[in-house]
Fold this sequence. Notes:
Layout: H1 6-23, H2 29-45, H3 47-58, H4 63-89, E1 92-94, E2 104-111, E3 114-118, H5 124-137, E4 141-145, H6 151-162, E5 170-173, H7 181-185, E6 190-194, H8 197-208, E7 214-217, E8 223-226, H9 232-244, E9 256-260, H10 264-279, H11 295-310, E10 314-317, E11 330-333, E12 350-356, H12 359-367, E13 374-378, H13 382-391, E14 396-399, E15 420-421, H14 426-432, E16 434-441, H15 458-468
Helix pairs in contact: 2-4, 3-4, 3-6, 4-5, 4-14, 9-10
Amino acid sequence: MIHETAAQRVARVFDTQRETFRAQTQPSLAERKARLRALRTQLQRYQDAIVAAMSADFGHRSAVDTKFLDLMGCILHINHTLRHLRGWMKPSPRRTELLFKGNQLSVEYQAKGVVGVISAWNFPIYIAVAGLVTALAAGNRVMLKMSEFNPHTNDVLKRLLAEIFDEQEVALVGGELEDPGFFSSLPFDHIIFTGSPGVGRLVMRAAAANLTPVTLELGGKSPAVVLADYDLADAARRIVHGKGTNCGQICIAPDYVLLPRRDVEGFVDELHAQFQALYGARPALNDDYSSIIDERQFQRLQGLLDDARSKGAEVRVCGEIVPGRKMPLHVLTRVTPEMRVMQEEIFGPLLPVLGYDDLAEAIAHINGGQRPLALYIFSTDRTNVDRLLRHTHSGGVTINDWGWHALNHGAPFGGVGNSGMGNYHAEEGFRELSHARTVFKRRTWFPTHLFHPPYGGRLQSLALRLYLGRADSNVKS
Length: 477
C-alpha cells in the first residue's frame, strides 16, 4: 500500500471538494440553513469539550473567555446569518443605462467554489468558525487550516465537524503539514487568513500565483485615546478588560493608550487598581485569567519588557509575578519610538501609556504609524470624537469601550492597510465570498442591432452627440 503524505492528503481533499462543487455549484437556501443549524447545535453540544481542549492548549484558558467570545461569538454570527440569508441570496435588480431602457439587468450572487480558511491560535474556534459560517452561507465548500499550537482544540473541532459534514463539504487540516505554506499555495477560489502582517504577505504572495482573492485580518497597534472630559477610572477599567481578556492575546486588544499628559500618573494608578479589581493581586490564582499560550510567546513578551527597560521605560507591574505563564498587566511609561514595544504588535498584557498636549498631537501619532485594526475613543465630546473619526483610519471603532464592534455581526469586520483587507462578517462578508455575476437580458423586441455596423446611422449619431457632445477643435491630435 502506498503511503499518503499529509500534503498529498490535503491536495486530494482539495481536488475532491472542487469536483463535488462542480457537480452542485449552488446549494439551495434550505441546504445552507440546514448546515448552519447543524453547526450551531454541534458547538452547543461540544462547548465543555472545547473549553477543556483550549485550556489544555494554553496551559490555562479562562472558561468564560472561551464560552463568551469563541463560542457565543460563533452562535451570534450563525443566528444573524440565518435571519438574513434569504435576502442576501436574492438577485439584486439594477437600472439599465438609458440607451437600454426596457431591458432587464440584475446581479446574482454565485458561490465561488472552495474557500480556504487559515485560522490563528489565539481564538481558534471563533476565527475558524466565523470564516466557515460565511463561506457556507455563500454556498461554498471549505477547508480549514488550524494552527499547530492548538492540537487539543483541533482534535475536538475535527471530531465535531466530522459528525455533520463529509470532507467533500468541510475538511480540517491541523499541524500535520511539514510546510504550512503548502495550504495557501493551493488554487482556492478565495482565502481568508487571520494572523500577523508578515505571514499575511506570504499568504498573499502564494495566492497571487493562482490569482486567488484574499481576505486578510492582520492586527496591528490599536490605540486607545482618552480625552480630557472622560472619567479616568471608567476608561482604565475598560482598557484593562481589553488587555486582560485572553491575557491580551487578541488582535483587537488596546495596544497602547494616549491621554492628556497631566493625567498619565493618575491613570497608571487607576490601571493598577482596576486590574486588581478584575483579576486580584495574584492573577495566577484566578481562573478568570488566562495564560500566555506557550514559552516562546512568553519569552517574546519578556524580550519586549527588557528592551523597553534598557532604553529608559518605567514599568508598573499590576499583580504578583509567580512562576508560570500567567503574566499580570505591565504598564509602561516614558516609552520612546525606538523601543520594540512601540514598533511591534504586543499581543499580550503589556500596556504603554503616552501623554499628549493636544488632540492634534494624538492624531499625528496615530497617523504616523501603520493603520490599526481598531481604534478606541473615550469621550462624550461629540466634536472631538468626530474629529478623531474624520482624521484617522482604522479597521473598526468602538467609542467609550473596547472591542465590542467586532461582536456585532450585523456590521463588517476587517482591517485596512497593514491591518488587513476585506471582511467576513455580515452582508459584506457574504458578498465577499460570493461572485457578483451581472446578468443582462435583452427583450426580444429591443433593437440593439441599430448599434451594429455599418456605422453612421441616425440613432448612432444621436447617441454619440448626446453623451460625448462636441469635440474641442483646439485640441491637437
